[in-house]
Design a protein that fits this description.
This protein is of the alpha+beta class and 181 residues long. Helix content is 34%, strand content 22%. It has a seven-stranded antiparallel sheet with strand order 1-2-7-3-4-5-6.
Length: 181
């Protein structure tokens, strides 16, 4: 059996319509289950993105590129200096994982804070939107509560090499369709 043998096509051809419908239904159940688990995690953690991958080395030695972070974002918990937060900047799609280094609390109770990557020489004001000097609570996606080292490297590889991503997804789809149990 070589790398490009297409014996699985014979398996698909041998399936009757009922078996083929069952396999598509099975695939749909897997996808919908994954979505339900993700939405459940969002509700439990209070974060729009409860799991993120560290994409750069700016937080070394605390977190390395490819580490998988687990986040919570409970609004009633105050942000503290030293905490690692994940935040989004206006005009940027990808969230940033950095540590809170300064806190500025106004008399009105409004809290603003400044962040910096552990491995960076300067604070993040250069990363913020033009004219923005501090982050606010609304910018926070979540706070790091735990991590699994290097598990997110698969995600980085799939983003860096889109053909690899499509190959993995195609293999998973084919496996689900031809697997008869």
């Amino acid at each position: 059996m070589g790398l490009f043998d297409f014996d699985f096509l014979n398996d698909v051809r041998r399936m009757n319509k009922r078996q083929l419908y069952y396999q598509f239904l099975n695939f749909g159940m897997i996808v919908s289950s994954a979505l339900m688990i993700w939405k459940g995690l969002m509700v439990m953690t209070g974060s729009e993105s409860p799991i993120v991958v560290v994409l750069s080395g700016s937080m070394e030695p605390a977190f390395f590129r490819g580490d998988l972070l687990f986040l919570t974002n409970y609004q009633e918990e105050p942000i503290r200096v030293g905490e690692i937060v994940v935040f989004k900047i206006e005009g940027r799609e990808i969230p940033i994982v950095h540590r809170v280094i300064k806190l500025h609390e106004k008399e009105t109770g409004e809290v603003k804070f400044l962040t910096k990557g552990d491995n960076n020489q300067v604070d993040d004001r250069g990363l913020y939107a033009p004219g923005q000097l501090w982050l606010q609570r609304k910018d926070v996606v979540g706070r790091a509560r735990g991590f699994v080292p290097y598990v997110g490297m698969v995600t980085i590889l799939m983003n860096d090499y889109p053909k690899f991503k499509y190959l993995i997804l195609a293999c998973l789809g084919i496996f689900v369709l031809i697997h008869r149990e």
